[in-house]
Design a protein that fits this description.
6-stranded mixed β-sheet; single chain; alpha/beta; 40% helix; 26% strand
Length: 532
């Protein structure tokens, strides 16, 4: 800066010199002028020195200012960054402020609602407080009343405690009496149960004088299982009895008319055993009597068919069978057949021998014999249900299906009947008429009543039939393929045999017996309608 000023002054000096030469030649003047210029130059130099000093100062100041400017610029940059950050934060804060202001508005609204609700609640609270005050007053009164009642209850409680003590003593006394009564009742019940068991046991020998039924389990525990094969009934017997004994199958309340109307043939067909007619002095082996009741006229009795099977000593099982026990259902008197199966050890039943019919028969009301009179009888337990072949007895299974069945019809009224069983036993009511078609019957028993009017069509000419006509009755029996030359017509005649027999070429046997003033016809039939 100083060098530049000197150069300027030098130029000014040269210009002045040139101008001096042109204007004059006066040296003194020039010297004055030069002196003045020199003075001026000196003054200028001084001024320049001053200016240079000022310039140096200014340069220093400028440098300092530049340094300060750099510092300020750096600070400015930092401040600008801070400002940018602050502005960004301010923007965020402004958004937050806006959100908070919105929340504040919502809060103010809620505060307003709460203030209103509080105002309302305050009113309600005042009412509630008043109500509660009333309730408290009422409760206080109630508590006062309860206190009075409690005091009374304490008094009563004390009375009750005393009473409870007294009642406890009475209860204990009554409990002791009750226990004693229960023990007594239990004894009575046991006695009653024993008596009931004894009654049920003795029911087995009901109607037999001086007969005693023994407990089965403690007397060899005899048991039997009854099954069937077609019409045949099979008995499988087991026991622990070591002594010789006899098994008795007893069917009571069946018809007494078998002997008289069928000459015992129905019994024979049912059991396969021969029947001994109850004639004077006849020895009876399959029939006995039980007492129904006793009145002023003596004993009223009912009959029982009895089937015997002997068992040797140390024989603990045996089997036996009968061909068609279903026929025992036939009972025109509408009685209820009953089954008893019993065992008598040797010498335990003194009347087990066959008995004889008195020469002059039994007098009215006279006691009739039974094989168990005065005997010790062991009932035989029947395992499971009875088979269908003895379905007429209580506890039996379902009926056998045709044709392997027995059809027993009693008190048959007028009508038409088609029967599809192998064995048939029919008993009619008085009058008629009746019409029967027997499709598969191989065994037939027919008993007509008074003034009967019967037609019987038999499809099997090889059947065994036993026919009895009632007084003043008429029976026409049509036999398939009999042939006209073998036909029989028989009318009752006083003093003549009023029975007969027809044997067919097929091996059939048709026996008949006529009631008074009745008739029967055994006729050929060719089944024109094909019913067979």
């Amino acid at each position: 800066m100083k060098q530049n000023i000197s150069a300027v002054l030098l130029c000014l000096l040269m210009i002045a010199s040139s101008l001096a030469g042109c204007m004059g030649t006066d040296d003194s003047t020039d010297d004055s002028a030069i002196a003045e210029l020199e003075n001026e130059i000196t003054m200028q130099d001084e001024k320049i020195a001053e200016l240079e000093a000022e310039v140096a100062t200014l340069i220093t100041q400028h440098q300092e200012a530049m340094a300060e400017l750099a510092t300020v610029q750096s600070t400015l940059q930092t401040t600008q960054a801070s400002l940018d950050s602050a502005e960004a934060n301010a923007t965020i804060h402004q958004a937050e402020i806006s959100s908070l202001e919105a929340e504040r508005e919502m809060a103010l609204a809620e505060v307003s609602m709460l203030n209103e609700l509080m105002s309302n609640m305050s009113d309600q609270s005042n009412e509630t407080l008043e109500s509660m005050a009333l309730q408290i007053a009422e409760l206080n009164q109630h508590m006062s009343n309860l206190s009075l009642m409690l005091n009374e209850s304490y008094d009563r409680h004390q009375e009750n405690v005393t009473l409870v003590t007294q009642l406890t003593v009475e209860r204990d006394n009554l409990q002791a009496a009750l226990d004693q009564a229960n023990n007594t009742i239990a004894g009575y019940l046991q006695d009653a149960a024993d008596a009931q068991a004894m009654a049920e046991l003795q029911d087995h020998v009901d109607g037999i004088i001086n007969a005693v039924a023994l407990d089965s389990e403690s007397n060899g525990d005899p048991r039997v299982t009854i099954t069937n094969n077609g019409l045949s009934t099979h008995f499988s017997y087991t026991s622990n009895i070591t002594e010789e004994h006899t098994i008795y199958v007893e069917i009571c309340n069946s018809s007494d008319t078998w002997e008289f109307n069928f000459d015992g043939k129905l019994f024979q067909a049912a059991t396969g055993l021969n029947w001994v007619s109850m004639q004077s002095d006849a020895e009876i082996r399959n029939y006995a009597y039980r007492i129904s009741y006793i009145d002023t006229y003596g004993f009223n009795l009912y009959g029982c068919y009895i089937l015997k099977t002997p068992v040797s000593s140390n024989q603990f099982n045996t089997t036996f069978s009968y061909p068609n026990l279903n026929l025992f259902e036939y009972s025109p008197d509408s009685q209820n057949p009953e089954l008893y199966i019993s065992v008598c050890k040797q010498n335990d039943c003194p009347q087990t021998a066959d008995w004889r019919v008195p020469y002059d028969w039994f007098r009215d009301g006279e006691l009739h014999p039974h094989y168990f009179l005065g005997g010790n009888v062991i009932p035989v337990t029947i395992n499971s249900e009875l088979p269908c072949t003895i379905s007429f007895l209580a506890g039996a299974g379902s009926s056998c299906q045709p044709p392997s069945c027995t059809d027993v019809m009693e008190n048959v009224g007028s009508g038409t009947y088609i029967i599809d069983c192998e064995s048939i036993a029919l008993g009619e009511s008085p009058y008629g008429p009746t019409n029967y078609t027997m499709l598969n019957a191989s065994t037939i028993f027919f008993e007509q009543n008074v003034y009967g009017d019967s037609e019987i069509y038999v499809c099997d000419a090889s059947a065994s039939a036993y026919l009895f006509t009632g007084p003043y009755g008429t029976a026409d029996v049509f036999i398939l393929g009999l042939g006209s030359s073998d036909e029989i017509n028989h009318t009752y005649t006083t003093g003549n045999p009023n029975s007969g027999i027809l044997e067919t070429s097929s091996g059939g046997t048709f026996k008949y017996k006529l009631g008074a003033w009745s008739d029967i016809s055994l006729l050929d039939w060719n089944d024109p309608d094909g019913v067979c």
